[in-house]
Amino acid sequence: MLLTPPRTPLPHILDSHEPGVADALFSAPFGLFGRQKIRAMIGRKLIKAEIELESSQLQPASLDLRLSKEAYRVRSSFLPGRGHTVRDRLKSLNAEPVSLAGKGAVLEKGIVYIARLMERLELRPNLSGAANPKSSTGRIDIFTRLIVDGGEAFDDVPLDYKGELWLEISPRSFSVRVKVGSKLSQVRFRSRHPQQRDRHTFTLDDAEIRKRHLACLLVDSPLDLREGVVLRVDLGGLGEPVVGYQAIKNSDVIDVNRLHGYAIEDFWEPIRAREDRRLILDPDQFYILASRERVQIPPDLAAEMAPIDPAIGEFRVHYAGFFDPGFGQGRDGRPSARAVLEVRSRDVPFLLEDGQPVGRLVYEKLAGPADALYGADATSSYQHQGLKLSKHFRGQSANGLTERL
User: Fold this and answer.
1) CA-CA distances (angstroms) from residue 45 to 52, 124, 148, 405?
2) Measured in Å, how far apart are the chain's first and last C-alpha atoms?
3) Can you tell me the mean pLDDT for 277-284?
4) How far apart are CA 358 and CA 310, in angstroms?
5) With CB atoms counted within 10 Å of each terminal CB, which end of the chain scores lower, N or C?
6) CATH classification for the domain delimited by 63-196, as one of 2.60.40.10, 2.40.100.10, 3.40.228.10, 2.70.40.10
7) CA atoms of 107 and 109, how far apart (whole Å)
8) pLDDT tens digits, 360-394
9) What is the pLDDT of residue 373?
């Protein structure tokens, strides 16, 4: 059963000729753009699309990006580099065309694909962008990275960028079906003061985070700071028998547009809590785990999961790292959502223990309050989540566990 939201055009978009009002949206204060400012960017033609943008693409502090029909199978990942376009590199690699029109195409696991996105940007000198996989993309182990013409870094849209957007797609655990309009990635926009052009980080320092935590709890546990709020893995179960899931190899194809359509047991093996509260991560295996802490994001902030110090362990956590304003806000004002962790070990088996630090949340201010918070409508699939797989799987209770467990 397909439960994809209907393609409805955006409601009122600020008229690009409305005097004074639109320009004010791009002046101080500086920071990440909330939904109303992204809507204004569309009205000012800073964001364009070959098919009219849909209201469902606008998130509280980000914009979902859609695949076009144009895609290619390539031998390797790449960055265009200064002075080169993505199309230049595709030509030099003898890329094999793949059409995403009609019913779309199956992207095989272990293969790298490059797809053009419907959206293109006409940014101003004070505007830049940063991309990340959507939560549901990361939870089915699809590795995606945004690429721009002349780009020298993945997921980075430089100041004043004008041009096409492309997405590198590499399914890792499951082969997937995608088609025109599929949404795998999202982009945030940041406005900078001229004196901030050379800055690469805008996150709150630990002193600011501590003040914010005193005013509004960011986590439901004692605050542990390390250039962000440290999160620890739960392998004790917190009263539940299952602490995670391991992807089953050689499973069926997952259609990314088919929601609540797949049985969990066909794709995932549950990981039950052990008496010693340990888990050995095997190389090339993919795991879904959860943080011990519950978190919430205040209305004027956004957050992102960042790696913990690499000296602590050779594993990667949370490929899809955006946390929108309002995420995890409980009805009692306390944090209500655990961070779901997408975990992969590197090179060698690695022993993970209950309570071990696995990542950190870094916070950044919005340029103005978002006009809608995460959890305000039915499209917010992971509000108040516990251990939870992606929304492609049916039979999950409120905390993410299967009903039969």
Assistant:
1) 12, 11, 18, 50
2) 24
3) 93
4) 10
5) N
6) 2.70.40.10
7) 7
8) 999 999 988 788 887 665 455 556 567 999 999 99
9) 84
